[in-house]
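F.,

This is the one I mentioned.
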């Protein structure tokens, strides 16, 4: 008895694979185009919003920084005053 092992091959329809790859590429191009258009729209709206502001963001940031520094200085002075008052009452 001769036992022949049959070789199994995969029969792939290359037209379908090519069509699938082409559609995938086309979808990627459409998606990238859509993302670029959306990014442009958001950037344009952001520029318009900044131009419409009465105080530019850089000046707002500088004002907030000054306020934070003044608050920090006031807190430090209050802490030192309280600490000096407490030390003065302990030495008496």
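My design for it:
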């Amino acid at each position: 008895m001769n036992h022949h092992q049959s070789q199994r091959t995969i029969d792939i329809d290359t037209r379908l694979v090519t069509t699938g790859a082409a559609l995938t590429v086309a979808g990627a191009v459409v998606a990238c185009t859509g993302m670029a258009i959306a990014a442009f729209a958001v950037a344009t709206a952001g520029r318009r919003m900044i131009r419409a502001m009465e105080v530019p963001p850089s000046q707002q940031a500088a004002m907030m920084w000054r306020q934070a520094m003044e608050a920090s200085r006031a807190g430090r002075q209050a802490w030192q005053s309280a600490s000096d008052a407490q030390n003065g009452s302990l030495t008496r």
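The radius of gyration is 36 Å.

Talk soon.
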